[in-house]
Write a structure and sequence with these properties.
It is built from 4 helices and 15 strands. By secondary structure, the chain is α+β, with helices and mostly antiparallel strands. Strands 3-4-5-2-1-15-14 form a 7-stranded mixed sheet, covered by helices on one side. Strand 8, helix 2 and strand 9 form a beta-alpha-beta unit. The protein is elongated and about 95 Å long.
Length: 315
């Protein structure tokens, strides 16, 4: 006979689905775009979203509709990356590091370990080899500077078509939209394989329309170029990755949503409030009254102790 055992978890652990997304929004420099983007993320219940091509200058943070936007831009209104985080998850963000207008990352606090989420915006396929190599060299430097004990999730617009080549497994899955990888795809696969990571966006079976992440202006070409790469040790935490086709009005990219099963750190126990002694009450008559009651209590206790002592000797 098989009996089911109840799973008992520590009180300060909450098993939850954390929904992480990536979206090339093309620009949030246009008036009203930020409001539209945040509304789309609320619609699809995204907790943390990496956004690319925000085209804001400098780096910093702003608040909008119950969300906090952490961004990393350049000197001009070009490129730019950032994170849109629900305010309820903001206390779990230990660190935000703006590296450049192509790379930034956050460190997110979980119960048993912290994870690092790196947001990337890679050069397009038509860029020079020098520009592409410079991007991956910078990404390597960032990852080398991170603690090896903290699992990493690297997400963003890699402009990379990842195929289904058998020689690249198990770094890639069999459910990619494309059969062959392009040059950017080979670079992404090489990077992931060298760091013992897997490209989760190629692991889950979906219809092709739910794998496409970019559509050409003419509508004839559809590619899967936005990806989610995770450390192999947490690949089982990824429950699903798919494109959300309803978010395409402001961009030629679709929102990519990934669902994770993680133990999020929460504070269940509130600090007990300690009542301070009102010293003013110990002045004047109240102090004398307190002293009298205390002396009376101590004398009665001493008298009772003497009686008990005599009874023991007589017994």
């Amino acid at each position: 006979m098989i009996t089911k055992q109840r799973l008992i978890l520590p009180r300060n652990v909450e098993i939850t689905d954390l929904c992480i997304g990536t979206w090339n929004v093309r620009s949030m420099y246009r008036t009203g775009t930020l409001t539209t983007v945040v509304s789309c993320l609320e619609r699809y219940r995204l907790d943390i979203t990496a956004v690319q091509e925000i085209r804001w200058e400098g780096s910093g943070s702003i608040k909008s509709q119950g969300n906090t936007i952490l961004y990393s831009g350049g000197e001009k209104h070009e490129r730019g990356v950032g994170f849109i985080i629900k305010d309820k998850f903001l206390p779990n963000v230990v660190k935000f590091e703006p590296i450049s207008d192509r790379i930034c990352y956050i460190e997110f606090k979980c119960k048993w370990f912290n994870i690092v989420i790196v947001n990337c915006y890679a050069p397009t396929e038509d860029k020079s080899e020098e520009v592409k190599n410079a991007f991956y060299d910078e990404l390597d430097r960032v990852c080398d500077g991170l603690s090896s004990g903290k699992p990493k999730i690297i997400i963003g617009d890699f402009n990379a078509k990842v195929g289904r080549e058998r020689i690249y497994r198990p770094t890639i899955g069999i459910n990619s939209l494309h059969s062959e990888s392009n040059e950017n795809g080979n670079k992404l696969i090489s990077f992931a394989a060298a760091r013992n990571m897997v490209i989760s966006s190629t692991m889950f079976p979906h219809k092709n329309i739910h794998k496409q992440t970019w559509i050409s202006p003419c509508g004839r070409i559809r590619n899967q170029i936005d990806h989610i790469v995770v450390d192999r040790r947490i690949r089982s935490n990824v429950e699903d990755v798919r494109s959300m086709r309803g978010c395409s009005a402001i961009s030629d990219h679709f929102l990519v949503k990934a669902r994770y099963k993680l133990k999020i750190s929460v504070n269940w126990q509130k600090k007990q409030s300690i009542k301070k002694i009102n010293r003013e009450l110990l002045n004047g008559n109240q102090a004398k009254e307190y002293q009298g009651k205390l002396n009376k209590y101590l004398s009665s206790a001493e008298h009772e102790a003497n009686i008990m002592g005599k009874n023991r000797k007589s017994g």
